[in-house]
Amino acid sequence: xxxxxxxxxxxxxxxxxxxxxxxxxxxxxxxxxxxxxxxxxxxxxxxxxxxxxxxxxxxxxxxxxxxxxxxxxxxxxxxxxxxxxxxxxxxxxxxxxxxxxxxxxxxxxxxxxxxxxxxxxxxxxxxxxxxxxxxxxxxxxxxxxxxxxxxxxxxxxxxxxxxxxxxxxxxxxxxxxxxxxxxxxxxxxxxxxxxxxxxxxxxxxxxx
Length: 208
Prior knowledge:
about 20% strand, alpha/beta, 6 strands, globular, FMN_Rdtase-like_dom, Rossmann fold, 5 helices, about 210 residues
């Protein structure tokens, strides 16, 4: 195991399917594979399905009565590494993923006296799955949003699998993970854990 400090990770699965759905989620499978790779680097954590929570629309950290985003926000900020998993729909990140980053807009106005936003020093990975083109677009959109609100993006942190267009084969149905995808699944956690330890030992100085 590289490094001595145990690290924590929190993953948010932004599938359109709730956990109670009988259909298996390819996004869950990708996140599970990432957690298996993270364990080799002393990282453990948990995953939640965003659709199991009432995430109100809005750009505040708490939108009031019934809003369950504050609890998820707490878990995201408590972890050293945040994993956002999203399927591709119509070439776009899921609407659930977009709502999640919209809620993070609140971080922009929650900076400390040194200009550091709440996710300062936190590392982010984005996992994308789908049966159509759009993985790079999804990564670009999600990474830009996460970086804007204070997360740090490691090298090679965009993990994805895209199946044959208009095919009914999903990532969760694969008998084995393609070698190129597995290399990325191994590389992203390695880089993320390394960067999280670096930032944990020496945090950002701030702008003042």
